[in-house]
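Appendix C: a fully annotated inverse folding record. The material below is reproduced so that readers can follow the format used throughout the book. The structure is listed first as tokens, followed by the designed sequence.
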């Protein structure tokens, strides 16, 4: 009799565990941060870019690694103030020119490693080291404001704006901190989030589908539609098409994105002064966020 009672208790506890892991009741996700919380992030961007100009194709293979520390400076009135500091920037680029490969490598932790070509880029890439700005997110991870554009401008890194992009609301880490749904979600549910400008000359309409819910994570499938971005340059038009797919893991406790991996296939045509410049980009972006 005692053995049967224990068995029933165990089955009841196991059933409750399965239910709490997410296939039952909907789960609500929100940023639940505290002042002083800190995270280390690493964003790895691998790209193959082909640009057609003046009858020539320019092919570039490149990898960028951006290491950042995120520190929660304040949490009040539904706003999360987070400081982002770039601790390391690594760039590797291969570009054949006139039949000869040109290799550029730069690492803010070891500027001399890339030789003469790497050192020639130091005046530009060295500015990424210790680049610090503040962003304010609401409790669903939506960007409310940041001082990044002013910081970039002071460092002479505002070239995105000059090329028809925009630094106002998007940076590195916060592009990959996925916005959370407004309503509780369960497995199979979908929701959409639109980014009007990613800072790269296009916007995104992201469709999230709940793939799995565990005791501590929500795993999302992501499919994105490219949108033309608003440009501050009336002399420039940008056409975009292609697809972007991937997955993201959200921490149920904090609402932070722990990991995401996005594959991109993008065709973009920039028209300026009557000249068209088609660009094809294939790549993968991996984002990892680890509590400190």
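Designed amino acids, in order:
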């Amino acid at each position: 009799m005692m053995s049967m009672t224990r068995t029933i208790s165990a089955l009841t506890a196991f059933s409750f565990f399965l239910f709490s892991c997410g296939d039952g009741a909907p789960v609500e996700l929100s940023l639940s941060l505290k002042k002083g919380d800190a995270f280390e992030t690493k964003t790895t961007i691998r790209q193959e870019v082909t640009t057609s100009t003046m009858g020539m194709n320019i092919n570039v293979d490149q990898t960028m690694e951006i290491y950042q520390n995120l520190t929660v400076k304040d949490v009040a009135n539904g706003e999360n103030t987070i400081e982002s500091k770039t601790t390391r920037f690594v760039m590797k680029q291969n570009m054949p020119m006139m039949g000869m490969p040109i290799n550029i490598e730069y690492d803010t932790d070891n500027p001399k490693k890339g030789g003469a070509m790497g050192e020639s880029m130091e005046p530009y890439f060295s500015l990424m080291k210790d680049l610090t700005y503040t962003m304010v997110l609401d409790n669903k991870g939506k960007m409310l404001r940041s001082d990044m554009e002013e910081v970039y401008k002071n460092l002479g890194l505002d070239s995105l704006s000059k090329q028809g992009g925009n630094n106002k609301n998007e940076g590195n880490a916060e592009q990959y901190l996925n916005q959370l749904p407004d309503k509780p979600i369960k497995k199979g549910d979908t929701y959409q989030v639109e980014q009007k400008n990613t800072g790269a000359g296009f916007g995104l309409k992201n469709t999230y589908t709940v793939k799995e819910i565990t005791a501590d994570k929500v795993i999302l499938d992501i499919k994105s539609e490219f949108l033309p971005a608003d440009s501050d340059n009336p002399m420039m038009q940008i056409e975009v098409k292609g697809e972007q797919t991937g997955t993201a893991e959200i921490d149920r406790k904090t609402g932070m994105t722990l990991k995401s991996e996005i594959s991109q296939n993008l065709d973009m045509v920039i028209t300026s002064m009557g000249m068209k410049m088609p660009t094809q980009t294939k790549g993968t972006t991996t984002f990892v966020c680890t509590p400190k």
